[in-house]
Amino acid sequence: MLPTDAVPHTDPVEPAGRIQLTDPVTLAGRTAPSRVLFGPHETNLGRRRSLSDRHVAYYRRRATGGAGLIVTETASVAADDWPYERAPLAADCLDGWRAVADACRPYGTLVLAGLGHAGGQGSSAYSQAVLRAPSRVADVVSRELPAELEHAELGTLVQDFAAAARLAADAGLDGVEIDAGQHSLLRQFLSGLTNLRSDDHGTDRSRLLREVLTAVRAAIGPGRVLGLRLCCDELAPWAGITPEQGAELAAGLAPSVDYLVVVRGSAMNLSATRPDGHTPPGFNLELCRTVRTAVAGAAPVALQGSVVETGQAQWALDDGAADLVEMTRAQIAEPDLVALLRAGHPERIRPCVLCNQRCRVRDNRNPIVSCIGEPASGHETEDQPVPGRDARPRDVLVVGAGPAGLEAARVLALRGHTVELAEQAAEPGGALRTAGALPGRERLALLADWLTAETRRLGVTLRTGVRLGSAQLDAARAAGRDVLLATGSVPGPHGFDLLGGIVVRPAELTADPTARSLPPGPVLVFDPIGDAVGVAVAELLAAAGRPTAIVTQDQVVGTQLALTGDLATANTRLQQAGVTLYKRRTVLELHDGHAVLEDVVTGRKEHVECTVLIDCGHRLPEQSLHRDHPGLPAAGDCVAPRTVHQAVLEGRRAALRLAAASEGAHR
């Protein structure tokens, strides 16, 4: 078997009769144009608890790109189930479902309604009602104690699923997908972790799910698709669903459904449900294969789990691990994934970097789903570069080939402008290259590679190792060229008194990942920001065999990683690697051989031995050219150092504004 992270994008030889990802598949008599699913996920695109015009545009965009099946954001079947503020409610989704179906129908995509109930994994914050669950078992995340569902309430719950499915059919959808996955009440009934009942729904834990499937099938009829998202491994073998139990369960349920999506995880391990780049793509391959073998053809089986490479997805079909492949994050990153693959251009597919920075949106800020590499995702009703070329092409010089400069050059070239991209470093990519050299963030370099390849494909002149000064900019402008600055950032001042010792910045370290150039002895990582950088730097040093400690003023290391789902696992990795954690502390002074730390709560000071300090503090805009040319458009870190997403978004917007200004000047 090929390792999951080593499967090529495409195979050089295609055997006769080989099933392609781009081939159609028939489910319940309805034909999907490809075997690629766009699965249900939180979007925060809703208006109150209904699907909005933003949902419609979002799903239409994936349909135009060739998605075979689209499962809309999971809608609660009962009003008292309100797991997050903008969670859809089936009773409020009729018009939205109908609009999505109408929008996707011209492209042949099958559209299904995701239906579920969060049970004890929900929240009472919005419903102001007690949570309902199989048993009185507090949720391990929220610690909220639910009420136990009474027998009569179970009958009502089954009717709620049936009513929601009937509504989806009335809306003209092609079917429904029932959620018995990681965040669902139905999984909670299947699991010994949460179902401690002694009645017939406890002695037979799959009974409720079977009742729901039977009622839903009756509600939608045989001519519509009934899918099931089933947790087949809770990663809690002491009491939860094991792969062996999951396979047996799937085999018993498969004859009742038209397809089955195999997932893993539970409330015990939320980071496993949508992991970041620390987990290899396609992590569910063997679990899916086990389930498909057990199902023995009773229903098509879909592979799910960070499948972001088309080569890996195709190999899963070839090797008999799956019949369909869910590629949700991959299609957030590249809506045209299937269309580009069908056209024979897999190299043009924008990569998903598995960072979770913009597509994981279930938090109290209610951010809109998006992607760091494709910021138009989730914003299809706005900020869309209009296809086509501008009537009057311009000659544009973009200074800086980091993510902002590369994206600006790409968009300008797409619109027919002549573009020169000048970069002082030896290779393009900027901060993406630095970040991509850190553990668990290697896929960020793929985005730099893609942006570079696209600019070259579009005819951009890329010059590296070139540092432009004010004189060159003046000459370019005098020659009638437009200039756009994307010069990135520089290290900010140290947040401590430097009285001796050696200070290194992360960019210097990633150029020497073995840390051989550092003097021997313990290393102290100062992380006043709490994002992925400090944690990854500490991991890099520990892996190189260096005695490593990390300092943060927060109660937990890497506090910003809560937004991407990596907080708990990051702290686990650090401790397993032997990294010493200095929490609630800041660095006051650095001396030869030691640093002085201060407890931010008590003010107590202590000396910590170190020969080198890695300063992961804030950076500042690089504005040497902007100071001499304050009127020039600028984008990315040279405006204010932030994230890759902001850099790409601002590079795109700056390019579009420049193009629009050029057009206006010629009218």
UniProtKB/TrEMBL annotation:
Cofactor: [4Fe-4S] cluster; FMN
Keywords: Flavoprotein, FMN, Iron, Iron-sulfur, Metal-binding, Oxidoreductase
InterPro entries according to UniProt: Aldolase_TIM, CHP03996_oxidoreductase, FAD/NAD-bd_sf, NADH:flavin_oxidoreductase, OxRdtase_FMN_N
GO terms assigned for molecular function: 2,4-dienoyl-CoA reductase (NADPH) activity; FMN binding; iron-sulfur cluster binding; metal ion binding
GO biological process, one term: fatty acid beta-oxidation, unsaturated, even number, reductase/isomerase pathway
Residues annotated as domain NADH:flavin oxidoreductase/NADH oxidase N-terminal: 23-345
Key word Flavoprotein present: yes
UniProt cross-references to SUPFAM superfamilies, sorted A to Z: FAD/NAD(P)-binding domain, FMN-linked oxidoreductases
Family annotation (PANTHER family): 2,4-DIENOYL-COA REDUCTASE, 2,4-DIENOYL-COA REDUCTASE [(2E)-ENOYL-COA-PRODUCING]
Sequence similarity: In the N-terminal section; belongs to the NADH:flavin oxidoreductase/NADH oxidase family.
Identification of the protein by name: FAD-dependent oxidoreductase
Species the sequence originates in: Kitasatospora sp. CMC57
